[in-house]
Amino acid sequence: MKKILAAMLTAVLCMGLLTACGNAAEETGQAAETEETATEAANEAEPADAVEETAEEAAQPEAEASVSEALADGVLNVGTNAEFPPFEYVDDNGEPDGFDIALIKAIGEKLGVEVQVENMEFSALVASIGGKIDVAIAGMTVTDERKETVDFSDSYYTAVQYVILPKDSEIAAAADLEGKAIGVQLGTTGDFIAEEIAGAEVAQYNKALDAVNDLVNGRLDCVIVDKNPALVFQSKFEDQVKAVDGAQFDFEAEEYAIAIPKGDTVLAEQINAALKEMMDDGTFDELVKEYIEGSDE
Ligand code: GLN
C-alpha cells in the first residue's frame, strides 16, 4: 500500500512539475512507469502484487513487453481531424480517408488490431489521448508543448508552414506579415506562428478551408497553413490565390508524428517497428504516391 501511496504522490508532484518530472523520466525511464503505475492504481485499485510486477517491468525496459493497455481491447481508437487534405479528409461516403488514415490502418493491421477512426476537432486531439482515443494521427507536428502531454512516434513526414495569399498580393517576406489579418486553423503550429507576428490580427478557424474562403472573399490578408493542404487549396482556388513556401518567411521545418499516450513505451515501440517495416519494404512510399503526390493538381 505504501508503494501505491508513494507512486500516487509522485504522480501528483508530476502534475505540478510537468517539465521537471518529464526530464527526470526521460533520464531514468523509470519515473514514467511509476507515473503510469499510479494512474493504474488510482483507476483500478489493483492489488499490490500487480503493482509490484509493473515496477519490475520498469526496471527492465528492454524486456519483450506484452500488450499495450491501449490495445488490450483489440481496438486502436484513432483520433483525427478530417479537414487536412491530402493527409485526412472526408471521402464521398462520408468516411475519413487520406494518407494518415491509410497509414494508421496499415499499422493496425501489422499490430493485429481493429482501427476505429474518430473525426474530431484538431484542437481537442491532444487532450483526448488516453481517454476518448488511444492515439492521434492528423498531420500533427511534434512540439515541445505537446510533448508535455503526449509522446510521439518516430516522425514520418517533414513539412513546413506555407503562406496562402491573394494572387496579386505583394506580401513576400517575414516583415510584410506584421500588422496583417492572418487566418489560421485553431491550435495548429500555423496559429502559434501567427500569434508571434508583431501587430497581426489572427483569426482562428476550426477548418483551414473556411480561412481560405475568407481570404478569397477579401476578409484576410493571408492564411498560414501546412504545405500540402496549402497546395491543395491553391489548386482549388487557382485563379484567386498563390501558396508561398514558408522558408521565404523564415518558418522552420516541422516533423509529423503519431501522438500516443504519455509513457506508453510498449505502444510506441510497436508503432515505430510497424512504421519502419513499411518504410523498408516500400509500402510507405506507395502510400505517398497514392495520396500525396499529385494531390496538388
Ligand atoms: N501540422 C500542424 C500542427 O500540428 C497542423 C495540423 C492540422 O491542422 N491537422 O499543428
Descriptive account of the structure:
It contains 12 helices and 15 strands. The chain is globular. It has 2 domains: 69-158 and 255-292, 3-Layer(aba) Sandwich (D-Maltodextrin-Binding Protein, domain 2), CATH 3.40.190; 161-252, D-Maltodextrin-Binding Protein, domain 2 (3-Layer(aba) Sandwich). A hairpin with a 3-residue loop joins strand 2 (83-84) and strand 3 (88-90). The strands form 5 sheets. It has a 5-stranded mixed β-sheet, with helices on both faces. Strands 5-1-6 form a 3-stranded parallel β-sheet, sandwiched between helices. It has a 3-stranded antiparallel β-sheet with strand order 2-3-4, covered by helices on one side. By secondary structure, the protein is α/β, with parallel strands linked by helices. The N and C termini lie far apart (62 Å). Helix 1 (2-16) crosses helix 2 and helix 3 (31-44) runs antiparallel to helix 4 (48-59). It binds glutamine. Glutamine binds at residues 81, 84, 122, 138-141, 185, 188-189, 226, 254.
* Shape-level CATH architecture of the largest domain: 3-Layer(aba) Sandwich
- Secondary structure category: alpha/beta
Count of distinct strands: 15
- First-last Cα distance: 62 Å
The helix tally amounts to 12
Order of SSEs, N→C?
A: HHHHEEEEHEHEHEEEEHEHEHEEEHH
Oligomeric status of the shown chains? Answer: single chain
Shape: globular
Strand content: 15-25%
Rounded radius of gyration (Å)? 21 Å
What fraction, in percent, of the residue positions are helical?
A: 40-55%
